[in-house]
Specification:
Blueprint lengths: L1 E6 L6 H17 L16 E6 L8 E5 L23 E6 L6 H4 L3 H20 L2 H14 L4 H7 L7
Parallel strand pairs: 1-2, 2-4
Antiparallel strand pairs: 3-4
Helix pairs in contact: 3-4
């Protein structure tokens, strides 16, 4: 099971958020099944990803860990443990244009999305107006067959021209 979240700002609490998401997913999957039976219930193996496309500089990939949020045992007057009893690892992948090209190129829609965001930012710098930048980026993408189906389905009538 893969849980993916998209972020334009890095949030150090992503591992906590994804822990809460996966707990809800497992809870729904196990509804009606007895957790008290002598039979082990199988649950899907989870993987967690955050796709980052913000403006702030960020490495191609970084790992966030749930254990980074834990209070340190020594702060509680306890001995430091070798490893926490609970861990969740989140791979944060930078999908900005020109980053992680090997991965992005494997998924056309992801590559096209990266181009779209880059165009919005370029036009925003050139035009100084976010709404005008968005319209210009949409026009560029339509003219170059980028995210065409998505833009046709989700653009407002005035942006379809």
């Amino acid at each position: 099971m893969v849980l993916i979240e998209h972020q334009s700002t890095i949030n150090p609490n992503m591992a906590i958020r994804l822990l809460m998401y996966i707990a809800r997913v497992y809870e729904k999957m196990l509804t009606g099944k007895s957790l008290n039976s002598g039979k082990r219930l199988a649950i899907p193996h989870p993987e967690f990803f955050v796709l980052y496309n913000g403006k702030a500089p960020y490495p191609d990939e970084e790992v966030l860990r749930l254990s980074d949020a834990f209070e340190k045992p020594e702060a509680l007057g306890l001995e430091e443990k070798a490893a926490p009893s609970l861990e969740l690892v989140v791979r944060v992948i930078n999908i900005n244009e020109g980053r992680n090209t090997e991965l992005v190129d494997k998924c056309r829609k992801l590559a096209e999305y990266s181009v779209f965001i880059a165009k919005v930012r370029t036009y925003e710098q050139e035009l100084g107006d976010k709404e005008a930048a968005m319209k210009a980026a949409i026009k560029f993408c339509r003219d170059h067959d980028i995210l065409s189906t998505f833009l046709e389905q989700h653009s407002t009538a005035k942006n379809r021209r």
